[in-house]
Write a structure and sequence with these properties.
The chain is of the alpha+beta class. The chain folds into 3 domains: 8-76, no CATH class; 103-198; 201-306, no CATH class. Helix content is 57%, strand content 14%. Strands 1, 2, 3, 4, 7, 8, 9 and 10 form an 8-stranded antiparallel β-sheet that branches. It has a two-stranded antiparallel sheet with strand order 5-6. A hairpin with a 5-residue loop joins strand 3 (225-233) and strand 4. The termini are far apart.
Length: 309
């Protein structure tokens, strides 16, 4: 055997001694009787070493007194004891880093939820409010003034101008109280007024199938009300739909033919004209000109109309 191979290995012995010392400490920690009675009573190192020697001897393990002394010393110094880090910023940062994946998922879910709630609130509350505010402050006032200006320019009679001014006042009052629906209603009515003012047509008695009818009023079954069945025809021959209120039912309907109430003499004259050759020679009884609200009648009529007969 060579000199090199026979040489001692102090590093290995030191490692073995260290492992044994750690085992001694572990034995002391796990032996509750030692830890709670002898150690807590602060026995002398010799007494504690004696107890440890017996423990290892009972197990058939030969441990030198030097190792036992090293183990007891390490235990006294808490050399191999784990001390939990004290609470503080470094510990919190370390824990956060260790749990970053779990916290990251939770944070992502939280941020997505916040974004969804914010988006929903914006779409359901903020955006409609902004649109409504913009409509009240900008679009509706402009639309109201534009409709009024056009209606005023088209008016050829005082009644139409007064109606346009009243609708403008209604719309402005609605704007002042933030009533968008009321303002839109005023605009719609002004637009309808403008459409009426722009209309041009002739009121013509229809030839077929019925040109005139008579009706008995409910309040006086012995009397008769006479009507000419008419239609509004523009310069291109197109029949226009008109909104008419029936004096019999009190209901309003949009129709292309309706009955205009006339006296008995006008009724008989029209019927005689039709019976002559089946054609009404004087079929036009009025004309609606641009800028006016109602037709200018060339045949005497009375107030009242019907939409069914």
């Amino acid at each position: 055997m060579s000199e090199a191979s026979a040489a001692p290995r102090p590093a290995e012995h030191k490692l073995d001694d260290l492992m044994l010392a750690m085992d001694v400490v572990d034995t002391i920690r796990h032996d509750q009787r030692l830890a709670e009675r002898e150690l807590s009573l602060q026995l002398s190192d010799d007494a504690l070493i004696g107890r440890l020697r017996k423990i290892y001897s009972d197990q058939g393990i030969d441990v030198s007194d030097a190792i036992l002394q090293e183990g007891v010393k390490a235990l006294r110094e808490r050399r191999f004891a784990y001390a939990s880090p004290k609470p503080g910023v470094p510990r919190s940062l370390a824990l956060a880093w260790v749990n970053r994946a779990r916290f990251g998922r939770a944070l992502a879910v939280f941020l997505i939820s916040v974004a969804a709630l914010a988006g929903g609130y914006y779409l359901a509350v903020e955006r409609p409010q902004k649109l409504a505010q913009t409509e009240i402050s900008e679009r509706l006032p402009q639309s109201l003034k534009s409709a009024y200006s056009q209606a005023l320019n088209e008016s050829r009679i005082a009644a139409a101008r007064e109606r346009a001014q009243q609708l403008l006042a209604n719309g402005e009052a609605a704007l002042a109280r933030g009533d968008a629906e009321g303002t839109r209603k005023a605009i719609a009515e002004t637009t309808a007024l403008l459409s009426t003012l722009r209309e041009e047509y002739k009121l013509r008695v229809v030839s077929r199938p019925t040109s005139a009818v008579w009706r008995r009023p409910r309040i006086n079954p012995l009397a008769r009300n006479y009507y000419l069945i008419v239609e509004a025809v523009d310069e291109n021959g197109r029949v226009l739909a008109k909104t008419i209120r029936s004096e019999e039912t009190g209901e309003t309907a949009t129709v292309e033919k309706w009955g205009v109430r006339v006296g008995e003499d006008v009724y008989k004259k029209i019927m005689a004209d039709k019976l002559d050759d089946g054609i009404i020679q004087q079929s036009v009884i009025g004309e609606k000109k641009r800028g006016y609200l109602e037709p200018d009648y060339t045949t005497p009529v009375t107030s009242g109309a019907i939409t069914q007969w």
